[in-house]
Structures are given as C-alpha cells and as structure tokens.
Amino acid sequence: MASWNRRKPFGVAAPAESDLPRTLSWPHLLALGVGAIVGTGILTLIGVGADRAGPAVLLSFAIAGAICACAALAYAELSTMMPAAGSAYAYSYAVLGELVAWVVGWSLILEYSLVVSTVAVGWSGYAAPLLTGIGFPVALTQGPELGGLINLPAIFIIAVVAGLLCFGTRESARLNTILVLIKIATLALFVGVALPTFDAANLHPFMPFGFAKETGPDGVARGVMAAAAIIFFAFYGFDAISTAAEEAKRPERDLAIGIIGSLLICTLIYVLVAAAAIGALPFTRFADSPEPLALILREMGQGGVARIVAIAAVIALPTVLLGFLFGQSRIFLVMARDGFLPAGLAQVSKRGTPARIVIFTAIVVAVIAGVLPIDEIAALANAGTLIAFAAVGLCLIVMRRRAPELPRPFRAPLGVLVGIGAIAGCAYLFLSLPTKTLLWCLAWNAIGLIVYLAYGRHRSLLARRA
Known about the structure:
The longest helix has 35 residues, at 98-132. It is globular and about 65 Å long. Helix content is 66%, strand content 1%. The chain is mostly helical. It starts with 25 loop residues before the first helix and ends with a helix. It has a single domain (21-465), classed as Amino acid/polyamine transporter I. It has a two-stranded antiparallel sheet.
C-alpha cells in the first residue's frame, strides 16, 4: 500500500503509558461544548454579520447552524464508533488514509491555534485598560504589530488555562461548567432586556445585500452567504468534545449527547440573541461594532446592564480557551502516538493529564498570541475547520458503504444525506471566504505537505512497522 494511503487499523487501543482516565460524564462534555462554542463569536460577530447581510443575518445564522448540524451528526456517529482523542484526524486516518489524515490534522492545528490565540488577545483587550490604569506598561499589553513589545496578558491567560488542564481534567471541567452557566445567564439577561423592545420595522429591507457573496466597491464581500462564512466561526467548538472521547465515562452515550446537545443549545441561544439585537436597533447602528451587544444596551439607555454583560464576558471568556486548548492538546497527543510528534509528549502525568503535551500546546499558542500579527489571518481558523468538517462528512459516507455492519451506538439519521450536506455546505462556505483567506489556506497546506513528505511519512508509526 502506498504511504499516502496507509490506514490506521480500526479500533487500535492507546499505549498504556498514554492512557487517559475516564473522568467526564455527559454534563461535563455538554458544558465543554457550550463553553467552546459560545464566546467571542456571539459577542462580536452579530455586528460583523449585520454589516455583511443586514437583518438577513438571521438567515446567515440559520444556514451556518444547519451546516454545523450535519457535521455534528457525523461527528456523533463516528466518535461513538471510534472513541479516540484525535477527533477528525483520527477518523480520517482510519477511513481515508495517512495523507488525508495529515492534512486534516494540519488543518485542526490551524483552527485550534488561531482560535486560542485570537480569544486570548481578545481577553487581553478587555484586561489591558485595567492593567495600564494601575501603571502596567502599555508596551507589554500589545504585540509588535500594534507597536508594543509583547502581549503579556494574553500569554498569562493561556498559562492559567493550561495550568488548570494540567492540574486535572475533572477539576477544570467543573470550573468550566460554572463559567458556562454565568455566560448563559449573561446572554439571557441581554435577551430579557432587548427582546421586549422588538420592532419589526428594523427587519426592512430584510436582505439589502442579496444572498450570494458579492464584493462591493469597498472590497468587502457582502451577502447572506458571505456573512454565513464568517458567522460559522461562532458555531464550531462542538468538535472539541470528540477529542475527549478517551476521557468520557460512557463514550457510546456521552459523546453524542455532548456534541448534539451543545450545538442545539447554542443555536437556540444565537437565534434568540440575534433576533433581540436586530429587533432592538436598526442594524446600521451597530454593524461592524467590536462590542455590538453592549452598544445596543447603551443605545437603549441600559448602561448598567451593558457593564454587567461586559464584565461577565471577561469572566467567562476563558471557557473558550479551555475548550480549544483541551482539544488541541488531545489532537497533538494522538499525533505524537502516531509518530508525527516526539513520542515522549504522549506520556500522561500522575494526575492523569497529558501535561507535557498541554505545556507544549500552550507554548505554541502563547507565541502566536504574544508576538505574531493574528488579525489578518484569524479567518484562517474557519478555513481549517471547514476542511476538517468536510472530511468527517466524507468519513461518514465511506464507513456507511465500507462497513455497514459495524455497531454504531449513535446512528445519524439519513446518514449519507447528512454526510453530503456537511461536505457540500462546508465547500460552499469555504468558497465564500475572502480570497486572501483562501490564499493563506493554500500556503499553509503547501507547507504542511512539505513537512509530511520530508518528515511525517518516514517517522509515522505505520511507516516504521511497514
């Protein structure tokens, strides 16, 4: 078999030295998913989406949510069939072969690294005014691209979250659950204040920029699908649950509940928040605002509630970091087991956590957050995720045809159609991304192929066994 087509044997157990204790039940996984999904996306992307689609941003949310629903159903079936920590990377290795698995893993590295780094910089943006107010040097709160030296608050919050994950998976999951409840209560407060003032006149014209992506004179792509391609950022995060497969007490039940349940909860939250925002204020007054929810509340004369929303957001934002840092460390763990990273990183500490890989992951994302210019390339996270989601949809279809008799603790309804929906939807959203983002994605994957050809295909565990 050609090296690029080598497939990892189905259902191979993890080495004993890298066993992860099963400490998470479905409420922990549900909170992990909601915590990873509900973050900067809903707090900022309603404004960006309204700028791209107008009131039809409601339709953009629905389309992005429907595509994610197809991907979530595919993840739920595959994760219960193959409860491995590597998520889409592990499924692709077993189903589609080594080269596709490498591309998917390389794409997931892009997704998780940029999300963690972007959220950390976003958190730093809230914390920096408090620090500089007490004499902390401004140059240490911004990266070189903004004229500073290093973004220490971003590095600090990554270190705190990494420390929690090293301390214990169950303990960090408990804290995450508390913070998620605070976050949901905050968004419920916004809906409770804004929704009663709903004015249907704010929905007209409903689709001022059309449906398909159209680039205007200002160079900005607008339309329902252009907005959906960006809003997609606000939905993913449920895939982090599948990386906890080896730590779930009952993966055959808990993973499906966590993946599908978190997406349903977040879709409901998003639709309510988006409807409340659009109905409360004409979209032109908060379009492209960096803090649209707080702006809407202030415009309504609810300055006190706006401050509560802002403070709660800062407190709860680290749940996104926890979810994605958890996910990336588990993907790195499995890639280390497979020989693509040094095997020593896959060892589990006495506390039952992959501490070495968590620290390694934290260093990678801290460098990105602390010194690299991420504003221009943050949209790349969407590109990496769409590649992974499409691969999972393809894995679902292939396994339905190749091994229909295998037990499936969770079986996605209309499986082949769900897989096609995930592939087609992700492809459409991928092509709806800005041209610059697509070029960056091409460059990233070209680098990935060079790394694979020069290192990965010779160092992989399957290559050494051949």
